[in-house]
Amino acid sequence: MSPQSSLYDFEPDLSPLTEAEREVFEAVGMGQYGPREYARETGRAPGTVGNLLRRAREKVEVTGA
């Protein structure tokens, strides 16, 4: 019998992300906010949020592969 998997086993590795990338990835990439809404909430430009999210997704994809 194999041990039961936990949700932690399926979470992406966020360790390679900067603090800003991690913050945006968790808030927008994991579905809590939309990019524009999060930009308004944090006082960032929508383009900045989009760029941070793109870089975070690229890093998570590379480490998760």
Automatic annotation (TrEMBL):
Family annotation (InterPro entries): RNA_pol_sigma70_r4_t2, Sig_transdc_resp-reg_C-effctor, WH-like_DNA-bd_sf
Any Pfam family matching the protein: Sigma70_r4_2
One GO BP: DNA-templated transcription initiation
RNA polymerase sigma factor 70 region 4 type domain boundaries: 17-59
Gene Ontology molecular function terms on file: DNA binding; sigma factor activity
Protein name stated in the entry: RNA polymerase sigma factor 70 region 4 type 2 domain-containing protein
Species: Haloarcula pellucida
Lineage: Archaea, Methanobacteriati, Methanobacteriota, Stenosarchaea group, Halobacteria
